[in-house]
Amino acid sequence: MARAFTPKIVTANDLLVGDVIYLTRSGAWSRLHEEAHPATSEEQARTMLEHAQKQSDRIVGPYLADVEIGDDDRPHPVHFREVFRTRGPSNYPHGKQAQ
Amino acid sequence: MYVYQEFDEAFVRERVRQFRGQVEKRVDGALSEDEFRPLRLMNGLYLQLHAYMLRIAIPYGSLDSAKMRQLAFLADKWDKGYGHFTTRQNIQFNWPQLTDVPDMLEALADVGMHSIQTSGNCVRNVTADHFAGAAADELEDPRATAELIRQWSTDHPEFQFLPRKFKIAITGSPNDRAVTRAHDIGIRMIENDAGETGFEIIVGGGLGRSPFEGKVLRDFLPKDHLLPYLEAVLQVYNLAGRRDNKFKARIKILLHEGGLEDFRERTEKAFEEIRARFERPAGEMIDAIAKWFEPPVFNNVQTHAFDKALDANPAFRSFVETNTDEHRNPAYAIVTVSLKPIGGTPGDATAQQMRVMADIAEEFGHDEIRVSHEQNLILPHIRKADLPVVYERLREAGLATANAGLISDIIACPGMDYCTLATARSIPIAQQIATRFDELKLEHEIGPLKIKISGCINACGHHHVGHIGILGLDKAGAESYQITLGGDATETFALGERTGPGFGADEIIPAIETIVSTYLDLRDSEEETFLEAFRRVGMTPFKEKLYPEGKSGEARNAA
Q1: Cβ neighbours of B387 (radius 10 Å)
Q2: Would you say residue B136 has pLDDT above 90?
Q3: CB–CB of A79 and B477 under 8 A?
Q4: Does the pLDDT value for residue A2 go beyond 80?
Q5: Are B345 and A93 in contact (CB under 8 A)?
Q6: Nearby residues of B333 by Cβ (< 8 Å), 6 or more positions away
Q7: Closest to B99 (Cβ–Cβ): which among A16, A20, A85?
Q8: What digits encode the pLDDT tens for the residues B311-357?
Q9: Smallest Cα–Cα separation from B72: which of B359, B364, B343?
Q10: How far is residue B39's CA from residue B189's CA, in Å, rounded to a whole number?
């Protein structure tokens, strides 16, 4: 049996501000992780990443990041690096956590 | 302080103009990120975890009040009101927006500053002893030589695409405060038997993934030969250094794989071939530049203010004991202004603090400020009679933490709070260590102890040369910290030795406490420092306490 696919989201940084952004269901970009659209198959993940890569005039460095789908039906980051990216640095209330 | 000549000024302005055009093209979509990335990196602009980061060069860590005020202006206008001083004596701003960066560079050019060669595979900012020109133990001020190297290496057409980045440090004192043994080239000013000043050239040092102590390539290089000799070293490295593997591309690997003798032979050969091209002897150029670094006119008038304050104010006394060093003029002191308030972020200063430093330097400090590689600021020339007033000004600005060289004076890289390369966070570990030992009120009893923390194997936090080094790693999706002991960044250089398996984020502070209490128990007197004790007893007693039987089994090994 094929190994279960870990859901993935597409994330990048905004070209002008540098802030972390996430690809949403509509194909637009959101600053909020909870609005990221999780791909549930390898093929869907690849299609979403390719879609992102074509937008290099607005975004920088898109990649796929693993998520877990919570009881709230929303994607939650798996790796601690991605958790940090959803909020900002731990030494000052700067970045996303300030908003 | 060196003042930009017309040539420097025109060059920097032209680079700003070019970069402005490049940013416009990137925003228009005319440049892709792949095309733009090397261009922004050439101007010190990185894209980090949450935002862009602009790294600004501070040549040999020297600032005056005008430059410091301009950095404060940048922090307020385009960042979040603070800046981060680094182990390369530079400053980084963590929150600029892409389209503001050309304006920031323009504002820097107004005070003779820039971000050129703060990134990329070129010769990076030349670092120097932060006590240069002031230290009592100094043979000669290394800054004129550092400035000559800056001029030679800036935009050097042959060395813009080296196999990897290249770092040079220089000291003019036998007490090495510039970590010359952990640089691609370390330069020590020395005197030969004939009483002439020259250089000991050390090559192939470095930290990072494969740490090496530098080796002496030339035990005495006459001053006049400096530039052709450096050019020869770079030329050999540029041709023979590995470009097939990023992790093996530094000069230290070339030396390690090919051997010192082979490298020396090639360098001497290249030197003989090119030296004739250097018409003007470097010694003459250094002498010409040295006029920009003339010692200030000291005011030797003493008052009773200093002694009175020592008697009356224990906090001032404590500050003088830990944060001042011997100046070549007995009426003066070198003041280390700690950027390590207990629980704060190592190396950070607010715009307001930068302005206070500028004001003090201008009023009392012969307009000189230095950035130390230990992420502190230095007022190199403060008259002792003025110290009580200077201390009060610093205290009001939150800049009088009396901890220089003590356990809370920690080097920490930005780690995973900012850096895309990081594998774990560094800053919170530094904050917790400082806070914990402040609670225990043990800092002064422990005495000199240097903790250095890196958030990844690249070792920007110099962990290999910390008396206690901490390396943050990602172990199976959790932050984990390896400890090394016995590292030493000075003339008695040593690379730290790993204690064993790493510790989780919630275990690392207790582990540091265990190491420190082990030291306090075993030291033969209060005078025996941590490093001396470690050298006497070795790793075993620390290991026994860190990994007591029964706990060193599966759980530890899995960490």
Answers
A1: 24
A2: yes
A3: yes
A4: no
A5: no
A6: B320, B324, B325, B326, B327, B382, B383, B384, B387
A7: A16
A8: 999 999 999 999 999 999 999 999 999 999 999 999 999 999 999 99
A9: B359
A10: 36
Instruction: Please give, rounded to a whole number of angstroms, the shortest distance from the CA of A73 to a CA of chain B.
Output: 23
Q: What ranges make up the beta strands (E) of B360-436?
A: 369-371, 377-383, 411-412
- In chain B, what are the domains? 6-109 (3.90.480.20), 142-292 (3.30.413.10), 308-396 (3.90.480.20), 411-558 (3.30.413.10)
Chain B residues with CB inside 8 Å of A94's CB?
A: 50, 80, 94-95
Q: Which residue of B has its CA nearest to A57?
A: B29
Q: Which three-class secondary structure state does DSSP give residue B263?
A: helix
Say yes or no: B24 contacts chain A, CB-CB below 8 A: no
pLDDT of residue B4: 73
pLDDT tens per residue across span B371-383: 999 999 999 999 9
Name the H helices within B241-328.
Answer: 251-258, 260-274, 282-290, 305-312, 314-323
Identify the residue whose tokens are 């030197």.
B271
- B477 CB neighbours in chain A (<8 A) are 78-80
Helix H or strand E segment including A10 = strand A8-14
- Name the β-bridge partners of B412: B453
CA distance B52 to B399: 28
Q: How far apart are CA B340 and CA B143, in angstroms?
A: 26
Assess contact for B385 and B305: CB atoms under 8 A.
yes
- Chain B residues closer than 8 Å to A97 by CB: none
With a CB-CB cutoff of 8 Å, which residues 10-69 of chain A face chain B? 13, 15-20, 56-57, 60-61
**Using one digit for the tens of pLDDT, what is the confidence trace for A26-68?**
999 999 999 999 999 999 999 999 999 999 899 999 999 999 9
**Closest to B20 (Cα-Cα) out of B109, B128, B89, B144:** B109
**CA nearest B355: which of B316, B398, B325, B323?**
B398
**Which tokens is B110 given?**
């107004």
CA-to-CA separations, B417 to A87, B33, B340, in angstroms, rounded: 10, 24, 17
* Closest listed residue to residue B452, CA positions, set B479, B484, B477: B484
List of chain B residues whose C-beta atoms are within 8 Å of the C-beta of residue A17: 51, 97-98
Q: Which residues contact B43 (CB under 8 A, 6 or more apart)?
A: B15, B19, B101, B105, B115, B116
How crowded is residue B233: how many other Cβ atoms within 10 Å of its Cβ? Answer: 26
Which pair of tokens denotes residue B183? 């640089």
Q: Model ipTM?
A: 0.96
pLDDT, one tens digit per residue, over B237-293 is 999 999 999 999 999 999 999 999 999 999 999 999 999 999 999 999 999 999 999
Q: Is the distance from CB of B482 to CB of B492 less than 8 angstroms?
A: no
CA–CA distance from B369 to each of B349, B355, B359, B360, B390 (Å)? Answer: 14, 12, 11, 9, 14
* Candidates B29, B47, B428; nearest CB to A57: B29
A89 near B CB under 8 A: yes
pLDDT the model gives residue B86: 97
